[in-house]
Amino acid sequence: MSERILIIDDEPQITRVLRAALAAQRYDVRTANDPEEALRLFAEWTPDLVITDLAMPEVSGIDICRAIRRSAHTPIIVLSVRDQERTKVEALDAGADDYVTKPFSTQELLARVRAHLRRAPERVMDQAVDAGDFRIDPAAHTVTLSGLPVHLTPREFDLLLFFARNAGKVLTHRVLLTAVWGAQSAHQSEYLRVFIGQLRKKLQGASGKEYIQTEPWIGYRFVPDGLPE
């Protein structure tokens, strides 16, 4: 059965173009031009992946992300323009897994769609990981830090899980990007920094410790027992 993809955008021209491109790859595609219709379709149709624009009138893509995250871990890709850096961060914090900057290549978007759909089932099969102050349960999609729950977006969760499985090792930007986002993102180190910054903020806010160390010009090291700030 074809994977289901829901496209949310208030510009009919964009939804037509994306629908044609995705349908040509044999995905089952539906579109929504307003948030109310989008959330109704999401609840009734249960798509495997959502693509949503950020800048929409009345209800934004950020609101869509929050609404979906109340009930599901479905991968979400947001579309944004170049000058929306702060909005991108808000969207990631609201539960988006990925963002693609307009104007974008259709081939790049298709590659990201394939990567997220490949990874979606893997979380269910993974076993819990205990590392230092952390317990990470992929099946339940939960993280506890010193026994207290930490709420992460799906992509932050994937990043922390990969760190925990490689605790103490220096992981290069390329290794992290390829493992968590796929080979098509292997050179986007700025993209990685956004997620690392958000993840650090949440972990330090919950514990007062530093768990992710920067290795200048190389990458990052995860210290599961943490270091004082």
Walk me through the structure.
With 229 residues, the protein is of the alpha/beta class. The protein has 2 domains: 116 residues, 3-Layer(aba) Sandwich (Rossmann fold), CATH 3.40.50.2300; 105 residues, Winged helix-like DNA-binding domain superfamily/Winged helix DNA-binding domain (Arc Repressor Mutant, subunit A, Orthogonal Bundle), CATH 1.10.10.10. Helices cover 43% and strands 26% of the residues. It has 9 helices and 12 strands. Strand 8 and strand 9 form a beta hairpin.
Poorly predicted sequence stretches spanning 5 or more consecutive residues: 121-125
**Shape type:** globular
Tell me the number of helical segments per DSSP (H or I, 4 or more residues long): 9
Output the CATH topology of the largest domain: Rossmann fold
Question: What structural keywords apply?
Answer:
Arc Repressor Mutant, subunit A; about 230 residues; 2 domains; alpha/beta; 12 strands; Rossmann fold; 5-stranded parallel beta sheet
List the helices and strands and how they pair.
Blueprint: E1 4-8, H1 12-23, E2 28-32, H2 35-45, E3 49-53, H3 61-69, E4 76-81, H4 85-94, E5 98-102, H5 106-119, H6 122-125, E6 129-131, E7 134-137, E8 142-145, E9 148-149, H7 154-165, E10 170-172, H8 173-180, H9 189-207, E11 209-215, E12 219-228
Parallel strand pairs: 1-2, 1-3, 3-4, 4-5
Antiparallel strand pairs: 6-7, 7-8, 8-9, 10-12, 11-12
Task: Write a concise synopsis of the structure shown.
This protein is α/β, with parallel strands linked by helices.
